[in-house]
């Protein structure tokens, strides 16, 4: 392989590394956004659960007030029965008291059920809040790690670009221009190896004359199928 082609292969190798790192530099913020989205959804669920707890407490308080009001009615009926002027009035009030007490027993049970629901919801909200807090701390640590990783990747990309600029100076202008045009269309696979008579870009079998040109190693050789620049893997 001639000197210019060796230099071009070096550029292609650097480009491959740059493309890979540029992919990583795009993935890192995307990964962070995905984690932030997950935490935001957890915060929303926590807020919804908190609102549910408030609503449950309000309903429980209303039920308690209903029970207390019902108990006051029974107290007043008991006061009235002590002042009953006839047996009939006594029996009527006694029957009403028994009926109210039965209703109040059911109402008291309903209040206890509501209070138990409040306790369970409170425990669940508290546990979930602790999980969210842990997730927030983990995200902060992950953000710091990813930012550090991104800084390193960007520094590595810059170093590779500087090497590429130096290597590209060793490539004749016309050859480099053709390579650059291919890069714009093919990306990091603008220059690929020919292995066992096959282009490693499109995996088509190469023509015999193409193989012969590659073995000479003097000129640019293109795949007749995908137009990528070829080189023989040594």
List the keywords.
234 residues, mainly alpha, Helix Hairpins, 3-stranded mixed sheet, 4 helices, 3 strands, 79% helix, 5% strand
Mean pLDDT: 93
| Distance, first to last CA | 10 Å
Number of helices: 4
The succession of helices and strands, N to C, reads HHHEEHE
Low-confidence runs (pLDDT<50, min 5 residues)? none
How many β-strand runs?
3
Number of domains: 2
CATH class of the largest domain: Mainly Alpha
Shape: rod-shaped
Protein model, in words:
- With 234 residues, the protein is mainly α.
- The chain has two domains: 3-169, Helix Hairpins; 172-234, no CATH class.
- It is built from four helices and three strands, in the order αααββαβ.
- A three-stranded mixed β-sheet has the order 2-1-3.
- Strand 1 (191-195) and strand 2 (198-199) form a beta hairpin.
Summarize the structure.
With 234 residues, this protein is mainly alpha-helical.
